Amino acid sequence: IARDARGVPTIVGSGAGVLTERGEVSGEPAAAGITWQGGSSEVIAVNPAGGDIGEPLAAALRGLGSDMSAAFVLAKADRFGPDTLEPMRELPGGQNIAGGGTVGSLDSFAVDASGRVVSGAAVALLVRGLPRPIIRSSPGCRLLMPLRRITAIRGAMVTGIGGEPALEVLSSAAQDLVGQPLVLAVLAAGDASEGQRANLLVRAVQGVDPVSGGLLISSEVRVGMLIAFAIRDSAAARADLETVVRELEREIAGALPRFGVYFNCAGRGTSLHGTRDVDIRILRSRLGSVPLAGMFSAFEIAPYQGAPALELYTGVLSLFTAPS
């Protein structure tokens, strides 16, 4: 890329598979990418000696200015967590950041316009001069219960849900499950409207405190947020992505889709659906042959409440359009 595509800033990272509008490739060596005309772009790489990469990444993006159309981030999973994105909450254009976690131990790479190659625990491609993309996310989970309000926490631990011990709520929600599927927690903003599709953050249940009846979820939990428990589910994942794409189609009415970038969790794809190309067929059914490129990622990054947030078991589509 550095030799043959000089003048085209590029970022490169490893995933569990790749995809285009033509289909998915996993279980064998493959690469997918996309190039476009118009606008301008820059690349950055951050590789602090140790610790969190959030502040160096935010500082690097901040230093490039506030006129970005979008930024795409690739980051190593072992250097990333929900708190990593906290320094970006006030970043201008933070609602236009998307990305994913790389798979494996390799750093990611960036090639700048001169052909110089740099690498780091995180790299980003900053896009200017294009209409801002519409970024939408779709989790691959089925809720086991209605969303309920968090009423008590202790740090990252949820101790009360709707006035009941959190562990009792989890036990009740999961009592009819067959086998031992992974039970996840989903979080939503406290002002989510009843009857409307809520934007959800999927989180792992990291631990249990039988004494307090608490569940260790995430440092993001707050009293007043909504929470439910869920499991990965193919039918629910398909239905939600179909809803998202229908809403997206209505939202871009009058505009021409140009291209898209899709980060899809490695926990989706064939491991969830049992067959390839399920998500791609849903996207293609509404968007037609719009060029897409993406990867199966260790985690995803998408806007949530106006700022970038960590996503799990989620598909994140960034769709660029042009006025018709």
In brief:
This protein has about 325 residues and is of the alpha+beta class.
Helical proportion, percent range = 10-25%
For the residues shown, what is the average pLDDT? 93
Distance between the termini: 33 Å
Strand content: 35-45%
Notes on the structure:
- By secondary structure, this protein is an alpha+beta fold.
- 16% of the residues lie in helices and 40% in strands.
- Strands 11, 12, 13, 14, 15, 16, 17, 18 and 19 form a 9-stranded antiparallel beta sheet that branches. A 6-stranded mixed beta sheet has the order 3-2-21-20-24-10, covered by helices on one side.
- Strand 12 and strand 13 form a beta hairpin.
- The model has no long low-confidence stretch (mean pLDDT 93).
What key attributes describe this structure?
single chain, 16% helix, globular, six-stranded mixed β-sheet, 324 residues, nine-stranded antiparallel β-sheet, 5 helices, alpha+beta, 40% strand
